[in-house]
Amino acid sequence: MDKEKIEQLQIQMQQWLYEVEEYVHHIPPTQLYAAVGVVLFTMILFLIICLFKRTTSNTILLTGLSGSGKTFLFYQLRDGSAHQGTVTSMEPNEDSFILHSEREKKGKTRPVHIVDVPGHSRLRPKLDEFLPQAAGIVFVVDSVEFLPNSRTAAEYLYEILTKATVVKKKIPVLLLCNKVDKITAHTKEFIRKQLEKEIDKLRTSRTAVSEADISNEFTLGVSGEPFGFSQCCNKVIVAEASGLTGEISQLEQFIRENVKT
Q: What's this model's pTM, rounded to 2 decimal places?
């Protein structure tokens, strides 16, 4: 009985195919070409949309000087606690995950790929390995120990802001003033102004360097005017956080603005 049903189904399918073939033969060539063109255009458009969705980055880079608290922030984002974040990382610490604060709506959010780039001067070149995939950069500053390190922090931030990949892709940068829970922490406005002053000095001194030596850099700011982050080609935002206490709402907001759900 089953064999008979299969044979009947095959006969029916052959009949349908014959009818479709006959129908196609009776369609005027111009209409047929137009229909094929519409189908092809739709398929190409669909493939482009799918390709765009696949290539939209979900990578956020955490960088800054050693001791600024990047690893604390990494674990707060992933686990909701600062455990394991007390050791200075010598290798990039990376993982893809749903932000801890968004776990209850797991099916509605997109995982983020967070890379904690070592802040030691010898290991900073590792940042270049991840820049092409970056949807955003978080430059972490120690708000407590800022003044003794302001020059060094400004030099590192200058390097980042003048990198060809950052400028051409207009990668947004979050200047995150960490450890604001401490009484001796400097305000984000103070840190912003000091970094702008230091970068302005660097910019002036770098103009004396030959073009061959700065071939991979872009000029910051407007010539003849004091430097300000608002002059950058990419967006630079200043915010506050405390990796120790878990106050990272502004950091999470930056991540979600640049890694869409």
A: 0.75
